[in-house]
Amino acid sequence: SITVAPAQTLTDKEYQILRNVSLAVLREIGVDTGGSNVQVAINPVDGRLIVIEMNPRVSRSSALASKATGFPIAKVAAKLAVGFTLDELQNEITGGATPASFEPSIDYVVTKVPRFTFEKFPQADDRLTTQMKSVGEIMAIGRTFQESLQKALRGLEIGISGLDEVIDLNADDAHEKIQREMRHPGPDRLLYVADAFRSGMSIDEIHDICKIDPWFLAQIEDLILTEKSLSTKTLSTLKAGELYKLKRKGFSDIRLAKLLDASETEVRNIRHKQNIRPVYKRIDSCAAEFSSDTAYLYSTYEEECEARVSDKEKIIILGGGPNRIGQGIEFDYCCVHAALALRESGYETIMINCNPETVSTDFDTSDRLYFESLTLEDVLEIVHLEKPKGVIVQYGGQTPLKLARALEAAGVPIIGTSPDSIDLAEDRERFQKLLERLDLKQPPNATARSVDQALNAAKEIGYPLVVRPSYVLGGRAMEIVFNEEGLQRYMKEAVSVSNDSPVLLDRFLDDAVEMDVDAIYDGERVLIGGLMEHIEQAGVHSGDSACSLPPYELAPELQDKLREQVARMAEALGVRGLMNTQFAIQGTDIYVLEVNPRASRTAPFVSKATGYPLAKIAARVMVGQTLAQQGITEERIPSYYSVKEAVFPFVKFPGVDPLLGPEMKSTGEVMGIGKTFGEAFAKSQRAAGVKLDHSGKVLISIRDADKTKAPDIARMLVEKKYEIVATGGTARYLKEAGIPCEVVYKVNEGRPNTVDMIKNGQIQLIINTTEGKKAISDSFTMRREALQHRVTYYTTMAGAKAACYALGELDAGDVSCLQDLHKSLS
Length: 826
Prior knowledge:
Rossmann fold, 6-stranded mixed sheet
């Protein structure tokens, strides 16, 4: 749901009633101390009021309220829990000028817009209901609702720069589609409301369909009418006063460029020529009644600037923007650690981010916080004001990396790995030449810009293939295709995704072991942060695969070869700071899959497993402190095992196949630590909510290519007191290997079948591997039922084998705190 603060459409009387109701609910429940959250619905027609729910704890909305007002709810609640009272506590944001009992008042408008990733789950129903489906959110701050809304929309990073058009109004079914989208809300409902105004509908007509308050509709209508008035103008005919008014309404340079048929650079140049620049206001929880030294800032177009810029040496860190699949809090962890390390090194740290769910947007994480969208326009304005010594783009995932080239072109000093080196690693053809020079292997691959090119390249490389657009994070639109028909279907659907950039084809290395290596290079020496062996084989996205540090099966001589290859690539790329390399190992052949000269999503895991704060060490390297100067030159290899396991949102999306592939689907991760690999894996499964029983029935149904591995796994399961149930072909193979098993029908073969057994609670564990479109759709029902009946399933043989190790260690597990484990390493 899009949320606005303060409330824009309530009367003062309604506001006071809601306030009193909330406090009455807290007293009735018996909340003695701490934060609570009350959700209330009020009928705007007759004022009828209903309490929906109450949470006697801090919640997602507490985090949003804290960021919106600057009042640290969770921090204050923790102090109240140990006996303080509100009047004894100081409000930190005003430097103690007000007590914590002083209710926050705000002189700006905050808009929160959720970020959805339905493109990752094409089978999911994208209609919004009472079930939460967003995976992240953005918050924007402005002096008016219009400014705040437009800032939020452009920061979502979904390819829009404001209230962009989403439908061709000349299409025959345009009117019906607009009405349908407004009546049954989806992720783009607001954009369809804007298109409804463009199509000539009135506020009353739109309100009757979507029931959005007429006040909000009037604000959106005004923005659309403003856009319409620009259709007869050009950039050169726009008067200074007009441009200033447009900026006050929240129009971005890039949106104005589209409306005025100009480029973003031209709009920016004219704006600067007319001296139209944003000023920065402080969030102080008291509407400027008292002076605040806390630099928690947002931009707006007014007269007085409250930034109070210092002349210290500064470093700007660009955050990651809204959470989404493929780019989440792992990157925020890196940004926060960079801010802490650079502050310790004597720099003034400046954070730019717009995600209210993160630690990086706490006002006390950095010296100065700019709560702004990560667009070129917003970043350049802050750089112009602050004049930093350097800007770090390596830590926020793909979001700041996309800005690196344009920032460099605008003369912004980028520290760490240069944008050219980043491009060298991400540009397929340049990187290929580099590997050839270093005599390193890559899977056979090609770049195609048309369907014919792709089909010809595929004949040379051979199937199966991994296909994907270039420059993506989280495996967006990545797929494994097994034949020409699959490739043609993919090219038709994916070329639209690739924005005129080519499609990459790689030979899929079936049955290869995938490895992740995190390292830091300072120009003189390489520090290997850690080697991680993926438990799922190559072909499952690295963000979805469980992994073990140190490797649990890879031979030591192969590990040494990986270290040596990473060092050579770091030097050749000219990396300064963090770098992540992914390898696939087939037999004794090592293939380089990709190199990311930036912080990766494994950096927090490696840091916690080894005790080396990689993001901090790398941040110091970026400002010129070598590894030797920091006294950190030796790789740490723990005597215990750490396993990272992914957590998936499949329960939230009925109809989605929980089969793992090259497109990332996980929304979080957990970590287990144990003396053995089995113990660590068992702990990681328990932490991820995966149930492993000591005994029971296991259903095995696997593809032909995996059948040779089945007997070993089946024997391990029989030893662990499991009875084997298998589908036709698998059962035959197991019986030939001398393993007793019960035969069960597949879903389309008869009754009782696999799904019946799952529904009847007869199955405790499932091992199901499959390939090819038909086999995947045939076995979909089984995986979905397993998910709904909370039956543990593994869709890779490697995952099943790891589970067998874990079954022997379910009761193991000494408890050690992380600090003690790290002490044992140093």
